[in-house]
Here is the input.
Amino acid sequence: MLPRDLKPDQFTGYPPEARKLILAHLDLLRRLPLSFVPSLLREAIDYDYRFPAERSALDRELASLNALQPAQLNDRFAAFERVSLSSALEQFDWVNLPAQFVEQQSAYLWSTHQLDAFRKAATDYGEQLQAAAPSKELPVRRLGIAVIGQGVSSYDGKLFRNLRQHGTYFSSIKPDKGFDLLFAAVETRATEHAVPYGHWYVDGGGPIPHSASIIGVSYNGLDTLRAVLLKRMQSEIASPGMGPEELRTRMARLVPADLGMDKNGDQVLDRFKVKLLTEGSGTQIYSTTFAQWATREVLRRAQALTLLVRFAPRQRQRPLNELLANTKGNAELDPLGSLIDADMAAWYQWINQQRLPGSEHSAFIAWFEGHSEAVAVGPSFPEGAESTSEIDLRELFKLATT
Amino acid sequence: MTPLVSNSRTPWETARALSATRRDFLRGASSLALGSAMTSASPFLRGETARKKRKVIVITFGGGARDQETFAPEGQENIPNMLRELAPQSSFFTHVTNQGILGHYVATASLATGVYETLNNFSAIAPEHPTVFEYFRKDLNRPSSDAWVVAPSNGFNRIGESECRSYGLGQGARVILPKHLLSAASAGPSPDIEHLLRDNYESPLYTPQIGGNEVELQQMENILRLSVADFMSHAKTVSSPDELSVYIAKRLMQQEAPSLLWITMHDIDVAHSGAYSLYIEGIRRTDRLCLEMWKAVESHPEYANNTTMFVLPDFGRDSDYDAGGNGFQHHRTGDAASRTTWMMALGAGVRQGVVYEDPLQSIDLVPSLGALMGFSAAQSAGKPIRELL
Here is the structure.
């Protein structure tokens, strides 16, 4: 089936808001190429469970395409039209299984050497979309904070190597009560600029209590969910004929209720938590990977205005089958390796933050927890500079946000 | 404030920039000469006697490492052995691209056939096109004991020979899978060696099952001249699967002295777990193991002075700046950083201390080996590397 054959009754399996959105734009979808439409449906099918920023982006995208004249629309999708797909892909149930289609399409593009052309088409499309449908101005400048190195008493290596060139390195930070100061400042900011799913706290260990103005996600807080998921994965692996692609497909279909989560909880947030564990590689095993991936997804999907991330020591490397079996409760920790993981993750947090609207005004702080080293990036901080000023984290926060 | 670096360059420009970084660094660090300035005739020996004695070892520096953790200035601390010991005596090719599928088994199969294979990366199936081992054995009439592959996981079980009718069954390399050997010898996992049995970092949940434990154990006793007890005892002293592979490779060199030996390293691919420090550990270990292999060549009478060793990654890893990826963790975007790698050639007949910056493709390796060893890689889509001829 091709997009031109789409009919309203094919979307009866979609959740109500998603169905309404699609049916309102069905004529548009019929005019788009098969190499593109399932990617759009993959986003739309979960519309009911998307963050406000994601809904808004999808709304803007569809409105922008609807506003194009036929010739403009043809021109916009010419590169996607040139992508050749197999008859097997055409016959795939891409309306109801768009994510699986996209995965199979990706494999097909690799094997037919069309991936580079597809990548270029997608990149060009994204840039045109960004230019045609700019985001609204932010209520407050975006702020990211990474707290790394918990449990490390000393480190001789050079931290923040990548970030230093983009901001100012502080070598005399007063570390006393540093995390508490940052956390309190984030809570105040979240209260003053309340935005649904706008202010986040990700912890690679156990969470500390926080106000309702902040969304919190932590590695230890998902212990039960992770244990249920790992048990389920072990069971699936043992199924006859199970391969990596089928396993990934089955994991992607899981919803909170499948894993015993409360049906009356926040469905948007609960689905997000499940996806962190089912779509992220290594998030089930290493707390540093969990925190890094959660950070990426909070920024990419929720477009957080504030994101405080605190990394905790991950377990030492063990055989993967043992890790997956989750047999040993109190695994030995690797604080030093975790510091190196988190230093890189802080760099990625800043990169991902800079991909979002308003990046020219956004600010970022990374701090070696309990120590005097930090780096700050933003309009207030000269690039490639070093400061020996003795300031505490509250003062650094203030510098970053004013 | 400087805006975030955007990848507005074309993939070609980015790839050129990557290779330029390696070249500049290598020239500075190791006093290497630029290859375009070299005009002398090839140092490779041409005589039939020399060819018959020639041995080739290929090491894939796997699975996938980026410039910024290896040859770029900030990565040099991770590869001290390659830079200080191997680079000064090597011909270094700065710009090798892989235009195929970036999965480790399919990419290694492509390296071994000289054709971009399209097989399922996670299945233990044979390459479609003839392998270098089949060309070598058929054209030069060599026995099976003269071509060996030491590979990291069960998924590489079929890498030794293709499905091609005019080559294929029984005409390829013998494949030894140290982890399978270990599993067979231990008759099941034990806590001491479980860390060596990991099959696949990219899809760690999946291990293709292959049979033949009896054959594996016979290999160990008859070919490696190694008792199960000695093997198990050694296995418990190594820290990674690649260390076990190098141990087996050196044992093969002692016992069989194959003329064509292919070793696929894989420890670096632990990057898929998302732990950057483990990825760096993997690079440092692989760097050390490459030197260990070269020292084994130099100290072995069958190999010293007549062996050419090639070291090359199967491909790179995703750039930090590609929004479709997650930096070092995977190799899924197909961006320039994940497709652009390098190759080091050293030993018999290789010009020492030279850097070549002209673009090559990874599939050029097989026809180049053919030109060196005297066989025809008839179905390869690559071209012989003229700087090696």
Observations:
- The CA atoms of residues 239 and 247 of chain A lie 10 Å apart.
- Chain A touches chain B through 54 residues (CB under 8 Å).
